[in-house]
Amino acid sequence: MERFGGGSGIGGYEAAEQLSRQHEQLSRQQERHYRLLSELQTLVKALPSPCQQRLSYTTLSDLALALLDGTVFEIVQGLLEIQHLTEKNLYSQRLQLHSEHRGMKQELFHRHKEAQQCCRPHNLPLLRAAQQREMEAVEHRIREEQRMMDEKIVLELDQKVIDQQSTLEKAGVSGFYITTNPQELTLQMNLLELIRKLQQKESEAQKAFS
Fold it and tell me: pTM to 2 decimals?
């Protein structure tokens, strides 16, 4: 009986310790939630008035809850890095195409000039007319290729936005879901900006304490 009673005492003490730890953890989480919410409320004041009106206390409170463990900060950081790499890559592809087109026109211009120099005077009007048609065909091709490149860029960037919306919705971040509504997109962009600024503040605070 004594052994049983002693064991029960130890078990009770361990249970109390565990309860105390859980209470402390909960208290820390509530403290962090309040601090994040307070910082979000301050950051929101810098946003345009229509966005401020859309970001209610409940929305900001839900956002602060989603940011508690820091996972969403890492997700957003990863998504923004992917977006910047994509933009850089697409910009590089567009520059490359522009460079190829410039080279193509220069080569054609030199070829035309050489042909004119070798041409007999009475054949020159015919040659120039043929060259004009060739130049117009090349310029049409260039415009088409540029249009296709611009369409590709828009589609790829739109896809990145959908990826971001889907990932953040799955992560439980309030305000994020797949949409093409311009007002909702503006709101989501502002939410991303809030998360990014809050992450910077968190990072600066950690550096100050370390």
Answer: 0.74
